[in-house]
Each structure stands twice: as structure tokens, then as C-alpha cells.
Amino acid sequence: MQEAEPPLSISETSFHSTPPTIQTGFRYNLVCGSFVGVNHHDQSTLLGCSLMKNEEIESFKWLFQSWLRCMGGNAPKGFLTDQCASMKRALEACMPTTVHRWCIWHIMKKIPSKLNGYKGHADIEQEMSQVVWNSQSKDSFDRNWNDFLLNFGLGDNKWLSDLYEDRHIWVPIYLDHHFWAGMRSTQRSESMHSFFNKYITRNSSLIQFVKQYDNCLGSREQAERESDAADFHTVIPCATKSCIEAQFQDAYTHAKFREVQAQFRGKANCITRLKNSALGYSVYEVGEQVSSSIFNKFVVTYDSVAAEVKCHCLLFESRGILCRHALSVLSFEQVSQVSPRYILERWSKKVKRRHTHIKSSHDEPLMEPRSKRFDQLVFRSQNICEFASESEELTAILHRAYDNVMAEMEALKAKRKGTSSLSHEDANLESVNELQSPPRIRTRGRPKNRLGSKLEKQIANATKKKKTKVLSEVKVMFFKFVAIEFIFLVNSLGNVCMLYFR
């Protein structure tokens, strides 16, 4: 059984053990996309967001290439999106080794509208759900799908034909042998958009967007710290006398331990039967009672020499949690302790998340090529700081080294003093002759009529009256401030603004 990866540090490209999801919404007449992952408390984590002028392939290519640069060139192992053809083609071009998954929730939600014209559409929807969720192998899915089409006369349905052609990127049995941290839909991204709405409105300025984005990150980090504190100061009692359950109680965060306990409770509905055994390798059939008359059967193998258990439901491979079928076999084999490979550091309460100690992307101007040099220095110094913080002696050594390096850099800077002209920011500001708003685009889901902001109404009224009076000093200062900050964003981030935290 393949072990899921532990969470990686920033210097090793963070969150790559958790596939990010991306969902697009709209702000400022621009496409707003968010990257969302899962932390060790099973909480949604905002990895980054972007503002793009459209949803064309080239825009998504730019987005994913920018993501890769922020991640040190390392692509995530998995990516979960909605059914966007442009996103699919851009991912194939930019991250060819990344496993792409479509949101199954969006697909299943379309069944009533796509098949409503057929007789017995309710039965069709139920049978299709059974085929999608209960097929235990790729071959069985293919057989069940063909039988489903034949029984309901759906062989000529183009929507179903297209879904079958793309089955490798949405059907669970084709994807669950990869680690997804339990994610099968983009609902986490959609929930993050709703959470973001607490901080941002359509009338917010771009500079407010940047500041409120940081407030949003701070809120998520605070929730994570509170969960960390709860894990260390409280204990969830075991539901059984199992030593295996006690192992997970000691290691896992409360959120993940509750998932483990759910599997232990489900074990009560399982009946284990040994099919064959040879040289310490046993094959079991586990029947799980799901209703008064229905039993689902699962094949579980156990290797007593390697202390390895594997179930065909693939729960451990996809979520990193041992399933009730595997636990039932371990109980049958009288195993009192599971191998450490099944206790993932990914869900450990002792994991240290170093990203919370790194400044937000807008704390300092993102300038080229200075931002590149800054990123390179951060990547290289992160491990040194982590190592030095282990003791006072190591910290003192690093402080002395820093002092020596700082003195040398200040001496070099003083020697070159007076040779430079305008700063990068000043040069950019002086090179801009006219302040322009972002281009308007046609967006999906945007209301046809939008209520204008108070400022827009004031400008409109002033235009109608042909401005017989000049603006007051306060208004002049206000507009200068907005112009300078907007110019800064446009020139620092380009035509499209992309924000990456940590």
C-alpha cells in the first residue's frame, strides 16, 4: 500500500501533499480564482488567488506558470477543478505530470437537467449514481456503465458519451489510488469564496482587496492556531478498547481522529471471511451491511510478514485514513499495533507549519527583478533559520554570522552611494501618463445591472453639472492617494494581479 506524503515545508514547496483546488469567481470585472488546500485539521487553507482579465487558455497558462514559479518550479501531484476546457488544456501544457481531477459534485448535479427528458429519469439518476460510486474496479465500471446505457436506451446521449471519454478525470475508481486528502469536489474553493465575501465587496478598491486578503489569511491562521492549542490541551476519549485506536488518538489531530473513530464504529457492520491464505499472505472478503438486506463486498489483503493491509475501497490511498474493512481484518488477525506507515505525519498534531511565520506578499513591493532575488533568498534561508532555532547556541552563531554579513553589505552599499538615480517605484510612477481602470469583460453570473458606488454617483452628478466648482483640498488628496496606489498595483503586478501568500 502506497503511503501518502507528509506535509512539506515552504522550502520544499508547501502543500504538495494536498492537491489544490481552483475555482473562479468575479471581482472588479476581472476573473478571481482561488487556490485552496487542506491543513492537518481538515480545514480549508487559502494557498493563493489571482485576478485575470478572462478565462482563455493563455490566461490560465500564465496563472499556472506563475503558480509554479511561486512553488519553486515544483508542480503539485494533483489538481482539482471544475469542468473548464480552458483550464484543462492549460494544465496539460503547464503541468503534464500533475493528475487532473474534475469536481464530481458539479457533474452529478447536472444529471436532472441533462436527463430530465427521458422517461424514468429518477431511476436513471439513481442507477448512474450506483455505477459511479459503487464500481470497485475500472473493468467493473466499464461493464456497469455499458449495462446502464443499454438498459435505459442512452447509447446516443452525447453528454454521457463525453463523460465516459473523460472518465479518467472524474470517476472515483480511476482516481482514488492517488492521495487527495479526501477532496473530490471544488466546494472548498466555493466555500472560501463565500468566506472571502465577509472581507471584500464588489465596490472595494484594489488596495482594499490586497489588505483584506491579508486579513482573510490572518483569520484562517488564527483558526489553525486555536485548533493546534485544542489538540495539545484536550483529549478525545477512545470509543473502544482497541490499542490501534489509542495509537491514532495519541498521534492525530482531533479532526482526523474523529474520522478514524467513524471507521472504528463502522467496523461493527462488517463481517470478515478468510478466502485463502499462503505464506503469510491472506485474502479476505469483508461484507459491509449498508441496509437491512444489502451487503457491499470488499476484498482486503493482509501480508503478515510486511505488516501491510490493503483494501480495494482505496480509502487510505485517497484520504490517508485506514478504512473499516482493513480495521476489521486487522482485528481478525489480532493485530494490536499498526505499522507506522499507516500513521501519517500529514495528519499529526505535532506538525509544524512554518508558512505562518512568513510575511504576506504585499508587506513589501513585489518588484522585478528584486522580488525574484527576495524569493531565492527566502527559499535558501528557511532551513537555516529552522535549524538555528533549535537552541540558543545555534541561534547565537547565526546572529553573529548575520551581523558580519550585514556589516559587509552596508559597507558595499555606502561605497556605491550616490551612483543610482530614481528608485524603481518612482521611475514607474513617473512613466505613467494616464491612470486607466482595468478593462471590462463579459463575465459569467455577473448581474446585468450593478448598483454604482457612492463615489461613482458623485462623479456622475459632478459631470452632469459640468463641475462649476473645483474639488476641495481633501478630495484632491484623496484622488491622488487612490491614483498612486492603483498605479503601484498595475505596474508592480502587471495587467493581471496575482497574490501569493507565504
UniProtKB/TrEMBL annotation:
Keyword Acetylation: no
Record InterPro entries: FHY3/FAR1, MULE_transposase_dom, Znf_PMZ, Znf_SWIM
Keywords attached to this entry: Membrane, Metal-binding, Nucleus, Transmembrane, Transmembrane helix, Zinc, Zinc-finger
GO MF entries: zinc ion binding
Main location: nucleus
TM spans (from-to): 477-501
Region (Disordered) residue spans: 423-451
Coiled coil stretches, renumbered: none
Cellular component terms (Gene Ontology): nucleus
BP GO terms, sorted: regulation of DNA-templated transcription
Domain SWIM-type: 298-334
Extent of Basic residues compositional bias: 441-451
Subcellular location: Nucleus
Entry keyword annotation includes Membrane: yes
Superkingdom in the source lineage: Eukaryota
The protein's role, per its UniProt record: Putative transcription activator involved in regulating light control of development.
Record-stated family: Belongs to the FHY3/FAR1 family.
Name the record gives this protein: Protein FAR1-RELATED SEQUENCE
